[in-house]
Amino acid sequence: MAEAINATLRTEFGKGAARRARRANLIPAVLYGHGTDPVHLALPSHETFLILKATSNALLELSFDGNSETALVKSVQKDVVTNDIEHIDLLLLRRGEKVNVEVSVVTEGESAPGTIHSVELQSLAVESLAIAIPTHIVVSVEGLEDGTVVRVSDLQLPEGTTTEVDPETPVVVISVPHLEEELEELEAENALGTDAASDEAPAEESDEA
């Protein structure tokens, strides 16, 4: 579902204008797509930040200058020091349009006792209807045993969502962790082996007669 945002048209451009906009608690943005001319906008900083914090593929219902357009947040530029949003690229969408996005993978449940799970694929590239982009892909690890591998082909994708990723790609792997004591024993054995090898090494012959 698209989040409603009241935007304003920007008439000033350049670094100075962008700094002034940010001081006024506005985020510079550009709306483009479908062969239309780019539209330069300013978005309310706090409201936009909260929307982007909640989802990585945010849909916005933009109202500006008497117009209303639906857009997908395509990219976000942030200050490397303050992490403040400096600029947003918005992709213009039409009704019924599909988009290609990256959707995060999350797990739920607990694997079998004594095992842990590792997420091998943090996000999945999918094609989805713009108005129904999944917020995440859920993988249940409940009760899964050591050695279990959940692959892309095992994922339950929402209706209307597809992926071109290799079906055999591992997503989550279940394993038994190495105990700290076992690691210490291995390190001790390696150390003893190194010392023994040093003791058995032949002494170099003296050059003296």
From TrEMBL:
GO terms for molecular function: 5S rRNA binding; structural constituent of ribosome. Keywords: Ribonucleoprotein, Ribosomal protein, RNA-binding, rRNA-binding. One of its GO terms (cellular component) is cytosolic large ribosomal subunit. One of its GO terms (biological process) is translation. Residues 5-90 form the Large ribosomal subunit protein bL25 L25 domain. Residues 185-209 are annotated as: Disordered. Residues 98-177 form the Large ribosomal subunit protein bL25 beta domain. It holds the Pfam family Ribosomal_L25p. Residues 197-209 have a biased composition (Acidic residues). NCBIfam families: bL25_bact_ctc, PRK05618.2-1. Belongs to the bacterial ribosomal protein bL25 family. CTC subfamily. Part of the 50S ribosomal subunit; part of the 5S rRNA/L5/L18/L25 subcomplex. Contacts the 5S rRNA. Binds to the 5S rRNA independently of L5 and L18. This is one of the proteins that binds to the 5S RNA in the ribosome where it forms part of the central protuberance. This is Large ribosomal subunit protein bL25.
